Amino acid sequence: MLAWVVAAGFGSVASAQARGVAEDAGKWPQNVDLYAMLDQDGAPVLDKTVLASSFRQLVMELGTMVSNKPNLPADTVGLYGFDIDIATQFALTEAHYRAGETSPWARAEVDERAPPYHVVPTVTVRKGLPLSTEVGASVGWISGTSTGTFGGFARVAVLEGYKPLPDVALKLGYAGYVGNPQLDCGALDLGVTVGSTYPIGRLPGINEVEPAPPIALPEFGAGLQFVVGTAHLSFGGAWAPATIPTVTTSFGFTY
Asked: How far apart are CA 185 and CA 104, in angstroms?
């Protein structure tokens, strides 16, 4: 089976608040440390415009990292359905063109050496509800740090299973950055997914292929999902204008 999906919507960093709480950065040197932004190459950063611009860019990219990812097909799991998915996300934090400016990730690390990417292992669950609705939640850990992500979402299929018409699903979700005493950050997404599935003949060991672009702007992406029985394997990528690209691979089961 081959599924195509077209998605669009609105997304935003819902909250970003700095808190005046210091922490022992030596324990977790890759943690976002806002106090480290006040010093660069051994000299204090006195330009408030530079600090404000770096903080804004950092929040935008962090919001992209923690946001609900565009890896869901257009159809829901059904009234009695349940889905669990284990994913690994690669947030390419240094793939964004900086125009010669210092990376905000380098500014926000005590050793001023930002890694080229961050790895975020994530577990997501979905549960079907009546009237073609479903709810889901996800939790992840930003590797090498004491921080993580936690989010939830709800979806309703306003059109589902009426071939040859495509499936249409609406989604509302929120995800947050947790574990950092200096910073609160979250991302809100609202979108619509349109897609359908067509038979292409049975391939050895593969039952379905489902492209899964994102459902929230300003993030765009694409992916493939291979389904064998109750198991599925997914590959995808996403990019948000003015921030960073992410690459995600996952596997899971649908019951």
From this structure: 15
